[in-house]
Amino acid sequence: MSDPAPGDGVWWTRPAVRWGLVALIAILAVAVALWPRDGDDADVPGPTAAHPPAAISDAQRAAAGLAPCPRPAAGVTGSGPLAGLSLGCLADGAPVDLVAALAGKPALVNLWAYWCGPCATELPHLQEFAGRAGPDLTVLTVHTDPDEAKGLARLAGLGVTLPGVSDPQAKVRTAVGAPAVLPVTVLVRADGSIASVEVRAFSGVDDIADTVSRELGVRVAV
Q1: What is d(CA 71, CA 95) in angstroms, rounded to the nearest whole number?
Q2: How far is Cα 80 from Cα 189, in angstroms, rounded to an integer?
Q3: Three-state SS for 74?
Q4: What is the pLDDT of residues 10-57, one digit of tens each?
Q5: Which DSSP string corresponds to the chain?
Q6: Are 163 and 141 in contact (CB under 8 A)?
Q7: Which part of the chain is the Thioredoxin domain (predicted)?
Q8: Buried (b) or exposed (e) across 103-134, using 16+ Cβ within 10 A?
Q9: Are 78 and 105 in contact (CB under 8 A)?
Q10: Is the pLDDT of residue 222 over 50?
């Protein structure tokens, strides 16, 4: 057999062929890395699905000492963007038809979560404000997180006993078009229409009272 002519070389040592092989190997490596496999990360459920929150016992609810959720008044109906939303009451777990429960008088609906620092600062102000507002205004909290037990524990630690509902899927936030931040306060007129969506934390009771007076026309002495 004769030796290859100078410059011919073995075919796989030629520069063009060699770089083509390198590119092909790189493409195959990427394809293998991205190919779905049983048990790969793509099949692992998220934290909530893998570790669903435990059911809440009556004793846990009682320990939080929350006020009962508002109930629909006889013959009173509501409308607006919150219509059709049914959420679980934090105090007893019973379903609450939100717009029906709020219908007939103005309401302050506060969206929060147990992990939200500004929410923890704001909630005691809302508790004090609600005590001064009396029956002329409904103040309702909405825990916007799936872990209801941590929400109850957080309220107990803060000494906040306001009525509240659990909203693990953020239905209220979606209904009023609020951004995915917390806290958010929704001021609702007696007819169910939305007067204002406050995307901020209130600085104190005076701030809450001034905002409620301006947006809902309800004056509360502070």
Answers
A1: 10
A2: 9
A3: coil
A4: 444 555 545 555 455 554 443 433 343 333 322 222 334 445 667 888
A5: -PPPPTTT--GGGSHHHHHHHHHHHHHHHHHHHHS--TTSGGGSPPHHHHSPPPPPPHHHHHHHTPPPPP-PPTT----STTTT-EEEETTT--EEEHHHHHTTS-EEEEEE-TT-HHHHHHHHHHHHHHHHHGGGSEEEEEE-SS-HHHHHHHHHHHT----EEE-TT-HHHHHHT--S-S-EEEEE-TTS-EEEEE-S---SHHHHHHHHHHHH------
A6: yes
A7: 76-217
A8: bbbbbbbbbbbbebeebbebbebbbebbeebe
A9: no
A10: yes
DSSP string, 175-198: HHT--S-S-EEEEE-TTS-EEEEE
Look-up: residue for tokens 């009682």?
62
Structure token digits, residue 215:
């947006």
pLDDT digits (tens, 9 = 90+) for 186-200: 999 999 999 999 999
Counting every residue, how long is the chain?
222
Token look-up 């793509």 returns 42
The structure tokens listed for 149 are 């037990």
